[in-house]
Design a protein that fits this description.
Helix content is 38%, strand content 10%. The longest helix is centred in the first third of the chain and has 20 residues, at 25-44. A hairpin with a 6-residue loop joins strand 1 and strand 2. The model is unreliable at 200-215 and 336-344 (pLDDT under 50). A four-stranded antiparallel beta sheet has the order 3-6-7-8, with no helix packed on it. By secondary structure, it is an alpha+beta fold.
Length: 344
Amino acid sequence: MKRTLFAILTLALCVFVAAKDTKTPQEEYISKYAGIAVAEMYRSGIPASITLAQGLLESGAGRSSLASEGNNHFGIKCHNNWKGKTMRADDDAKNECFRAYSSAEESFRDHSDFLRYRDRYKFLFDFDITDYKSWAAGLKKAGYATDPAYASKLIKYIEDYGLSVYDNMTVQEVYSAVPEAEELSSEEEYPSEIPDSPLNIEAASSSYAGGIEQYSFAMSRKLYSRNGVPFVQSVEGETYSSIAKENNLFLREILRYNDLKSDRQLLPGTVVYLAAKKKMAAKGLDKYIVESDGESLRDIAQRFAIKKKNLLKMNDMTESSKIYEGDEIYLRPSIPSKVELRKR
């Protein structure tokens, strides 16, 4: 039934496109970039309707100087971590630094990463992929733009141009329905399913199998799982030793699981892993952008349930390495795409 609905929507879109002799700049923009927006939805979990609406609004349907000269379709400024091309333009202040890209596709991809890997936007990914109204309101709440009408403008674009249809389509369906859609230059194979929230935490079962090891945990408190690794949250007065004893573990085990060498008093709500963390983050979480100078590599390792030694290796760092606001920390091994390899 669902696939039948997709086919009907696709056919309706084809008829709508064919029925118009001339298109507005907005319609041309949508036709051109719909395929990229849907591809990014499957890569990052951001609704294609939201991506297209933001592109329309931020770039003036591709006609702004940022878009036409620097391929910047989303008004993203340089920030501390940007090492690519730049251009200057007036915005909140005169002559501000904005990111510049080699292609529109590169801009769309960076926009996806900008939202997915920053703390202030992580709550957006708890909304359903078709709930564009919550996504629009969330972007405004998170501070993507200062315009008080930002959410309502995005919603108007989505509803005026029927952009929500793309939230129910696959990449292949878009290219079948919209022949003029710009082809993807990357040879990357996009996922067949839209990824989950970047920090999806689910209740775990009463036992956990990690590799060939088996663990038996106490059932007197709520057990959680992150990246497939079980954990509890500490309460007032607990230590790693007391939690280890409660869960039939040795102190040295629980310290190793949490990248520590000695016991300590815990603040309430501290995440304590009860099994070995993974070598990399969950699929779809490729990197993390540091938003505070106070964060440590162990903090990040705990947050994403990754062994700190693997985090150091992936980022070519040592125990003494410092991290700062804006730094990009890889959570999964960085493998250059075929396109990047050809350029070398």
